[in-house]
What we know:
The complex is a heterodimer.
Chain A: E1 2-10, E2 16-25, E3 30-34, H1 41-48, E4 56-61, E5 64-65, H2 71-79, E6 81-84, H3 96-102, H4 111-124, H5 140-153, E7 158-162, H6 170-181, E8 189-194, E9 207-212, E10 215-218, H7 220-226
Parallel strand pairs in A: 3-8, 3-9, 6-7, 7-8
Antiparallel strand pairs in A: 1-2, 1-4, 4-5, 9-10
Chain B: H1 8-21, H2 23-59, E1 62-67, H3 73-81, E2 86-92, H4 94-105, E3 123-128, H5 133-141, E4 146-151, H6 153-195, H7 197-205, H8 210-250, H9 259-287
Helix pairs in contact in B: 1-8, 2-6, 2-8, 2-9, 6-8, 6-9, 8-9
Amino acid sequence: MIIANNLSLQYPEGTMGLRDVNLAIPSGQVVFITGPSGSGKTSFIKLLIGIEKPSTGTLNVLGENMGNIDKKDLQVLRQKIGPIFQDFRLLDGRTVYENVILGMRFLDFSKKFIKEMALETIERVGLKHKINSLVDNLSYGERQRVAIARAVARKPLLIIADEPTGNLDKDNSLNILELLTSFRNSDTSVIITTHATHLINDYDTSMKIHVQNGRFDLEEASYERAY
Amino acid sequence: MKGLTKNIDYFFREIKTIVKLDLLSNLFSLLSLGFIFFLVSLIFAGGYITDSMIRDIENQAEISVYYEAEANKIAIGNQIEKIAGVKEVIYINKEEAKMNMTEILGEESRILDLFDHNPFDPYIEIRIDLNEVENITEKANSLSGVELVRNNKEILDKLKDISSLISLLGVLIIISVSVATLIVTSHIIRQGINLNKEQINTLRLLGAPEFFIRLPYILEGLIMTVLAGLISSALIYFTFNYIYVKVIDFLPFMILPSLDKLLISIFIFTALLAIILGFIGSIFGLKSTKTS
């Protein structure tokens, strides 16, 4: 599903985002990428969704070589990914429901299916009672749940959450991680970046990758599962 | 273009949201476009009216031949009938000449009552083929007993000059208006895109196709120009209803085209102009804005 070989990312101003990363993430995994701020977690996410291109090495995401992917293929690839951004990127002035179905409108789904999926997912993230509320009027945690619902409702093969625990206390962080990992299935992997290493100890069936200065350090168990 | 019909409600809601983001500026742009279209509609109407007047005068091409009091009008008429291009010869007596003028002057014909006697002379009216006007005038003038030959060629020539001027002016104004409309429309689109850059980028990150992202902006430009066309059409409707009433009152002899036909022609012209310029302006606005 995701294969990186000697992958590096250098930004135009010279900063190294990632250095010589090698990893393979099969389908149906929960992957935690941990590390301090600025270690390279977000750089990896940017490469996964095609915001940046590898400087050296190769990165293959869902069968696409990210080094030379064209615009059309990138657009199709992004339709298979459910991204949850740090700042959520919700559309203000629209309701919870409108935000959730936005990610599905242009997909090959029927109107009926889109509606059913949106309602089911909104219920699953616990926002059924706020379905017609404007996202502008929601709390931080509720907005985050809308972002999660938008990402997962469209049945992606890869869910990517960038620092979902960033501004939350321990209990809320655990709830969000629980919610996110619950969307993993045999086809769908969930990749979560977080700097809160202590929160992921209970997830022993997952891959855990520690990033430091752009270098990936996979736990031994993760290596065994991956290769 | 997959998902176009499925999402039509979404596109229109998006347009509403985009317009509301900078409502005042969009309203001013709309009014500016409305007045621009009104200006071009006036020029179009001017061209339409003069063309119509020329056609009418051409269809009613005639020459009036005035003869000396003691001349034999029948003899003159017989000679005129033989000239090539003459279709019909009609003898108008003094009373008929006065009646014709009364009809032309309409309400203003009261002025004729001020005369103690009928001031009009009898004459011979000749219906002609307009292409032969010069030849017929020359030959009628050379007949003995003929005092004056009056044709409407001079009026026709003047009208044709005015028509050419209006056409030239029209082309120049339409070019200027097109450029102004393209600038205003593309500015509206650029403004909308700049205010929605974040949203556009989010849609791209979610894998939305370009048509899905751009369509609301193209439709916004189209709707703005069509609304401007409607504003212009409303102004034109009231303006020409007023002008026609005034012209009929003060210049009853002016041959104006039917108001309904004129208005329909202007509305069709404005609609086509609005749609074409709106579409091109939107595309131009999209192309000239960096969205990524």
